[in-house]
Specification:
Blueprint (H helix, E strand, L loop, with lengths): L3 E4 L1 H24 L5 H17 L5 E4 L2 E3 L10 H7 L13 E5 L23 H13 L4 E5 L7 H9 L6 E6 L6 H8 L3 E7 L5 H8 L4 H15 L2 E7 L9 H11 L4 E5 L17 H16 L8 E4 H4 L14 E4 L5 E2 L16 H12 L7 H4 L1 H10 L9 H8 L9 H7 L6
Parallel strand pairs: 4-5, 4-11, 5-6, 6-7, 7-8, 8-9, 9-10
Antiparallel strand pairs: 1-2, 2-3, 11-12
Helix pairs in contact: 1-2, 6-8
Amino acid sequence: MNKIKFINGFKRRIINLKIKLGVFFHYINYLITGRIKIKFFIAFLRRLLMFLKIIRNNKFVKINKNIKLDMYIPEYPTKAFYTSCDKFLEFKKEFPCTTALISITKKCVFNCSHCYQKKDLGKDIDINILVDTVKKMQDMNIAFFNIEGGESFVVYDRLLKVCKAIDDRSEIWVNSIGYGITIERLEELKKINVKAIMFSLHHDTPDEFNKFMGSDKAYDSLISGIEACHSANMNITFNSCLLKDDFYSGKFERIMEKAKDFKSILLQLIVPKPSGGWLGKFENAFTFQDLNIIKKKVNLFNNGLNYKDYPAILSQAIEEDENHFGCTAGGVDRFYINAKGDVQPCEFLNISFGNIQEEKFEDIYNRMRNIFLPAKKCMMCEKVSKEIYDIYNKSSNKVLPLSKELSKKIYLNWDRGEETIFYKKVKNIVNIK
């Protein structure tokens, strides 16, 4: 079994110092061999220190001898970890994106009402085109791949091909609802750098879980998948999309108890978004006060002495806060490719910048990046959801994301707010010319 240990408090400071020293000695060779000048080397270290300061309240996870600082940061001191660090070596252009979410299929045995792919009609993309695209993405500095469906294991041959195309410069997590997972498949995936399986955990009782997932077999499938992961020694993680009332009723705490019992290393806490199945329907919006309550609860579980044995939490309410990273969609630091090949800013923003079956990935990606750089504070998936819904309803082709042409109506004149504080500061450590 993997030896798992959660780290916060004083021990986290020691680990943080160890990582800083490790990074220094790894990159000092760049200075010695002339790959980087002293001015830029110092600026690079300052940038990394600023980044580590931003995530200082994260609960770290020690997995055997490696350290997981954040969901989207590969384990230290792997090759993939240093791929993510290389981001801050860029001084001539904008920072490269380091995270991508890829859907390999629309096929799914369940029927979740909230699914952000609910209206993504169309055939799964040619797997060879997707594999070629994934290779390009690695070469442009993607350090963390999150692979999903539908249900990834329903099309295991496609999952395997995509994962095999990704070498150890990147870390891979696979999203699943448990259906189709076997010990043998997990053993095979472990050999090609898949580090964790991420399950959905939106309710804490079997009946509520099944109702939410649209199947009376959903909870049994979850348990079966978790048990297989335990047998194969594969790390377990969860994502949980909770409504506002769940943070006042005690459900959040019950979800955390479940995640702990299931021996999860991390739980991604997703803020519900008005997209996909919830486009035009989601009205239970979070207020500023609600988000503050979520942040307090997350910080308690991540840093409180009474919660030291609970999984680490990565909360969108904190990550997307204007004092942290803001919105990093659109290739600022993450983007999404759906099952039929549309390149989207993120999974929750139902617009497309083009399809990789019709155009070169590089052209689509650059088109999107030009719209989203620099990083801004506004969550556009929330801000323009009504406009997307209106255009969708008026369109003769009832499908999401909006076509490349219709998407232009959304983004050409939108206001994304002010530039994110963190990215502005870190970029200005040796100004980009």
